[in-house]
Amino acid sequence: QEALYERFRQVMARRRACEMDYIDANPDNPLAGYCLTKIPIDSVLTYHERLADAARNSIFRPLLEPLLAKAGKYRLIRLAEAKIVAGSPAPDFTLKTADDKNFTLSSLRGKYVVLDFWGSWCGWCIKGIPKMKRYYDRYKSKLEIVGIDCNDTPERWLAAVEEHRLPWINVRNPKDVPAAEDISVEYAVSGYPTKVIIGPDGLIIGKYAGEGPDFYEALHKTIK
Fold this sequence. Notes:
Layout: H1 2-25, H2 30-36, H3 44-48, H4 53-56, H5 61-80, E1 94-97, E2 102-104, E3 112-118, H6 123-127, H7 129-139, E4 143-150, H8 154-163, E5 169-173, H9 183-186, E6 194-198, E7 204-209, H10 213-223
Parallel strand pairs: 3-4, 4-5
Antiparallel strand pairs: 1-2, 1-5, 3-6, 6-7
Helix pairs in contact: 1-2
């Protein structure tokens, strides 16, 4: 199985190289626009700049528009990673709560804060809720959790908050905002769930991707 996977990886790497070479050699061919949809996301913007108008505006343009938006968001996330590190100030933001009120992160200054980037569609996010509740009950005199729902409709978000009886602050990160205004981009979120621990001074203590023990160990150690 491992040998087959390695063979598959090599074939895919060669295929991507062929597609990128084709774009360089045929920038005005519509097929070059299609090849753009098959290359690594971190190379899309660079290779799109090499396309001639004939390739950019071909029948494949409807495929390129969402791809370019995704690639632009990816680039902003990579740039944001350098700022979302321990010791850096947590970017402030204001989002709507479940009862349609404005919530601003800086209003929690003086308490430990966990930002939980999640979604009702994310199986690992839902699986981690019971454990999150236990830690919240244990530390809520010093800690506040802010659940930041991402990539959901308002209806699905509110239904999930009610279904899982989430006891902490719940806000929604709108899907239709530009990437430059997206809170998940500003916090360099590339997977779900992602949790960020912030100290009472507003500085980032740590960022944790996935649902693993490292986040809970760090939270316990920090607050204790």
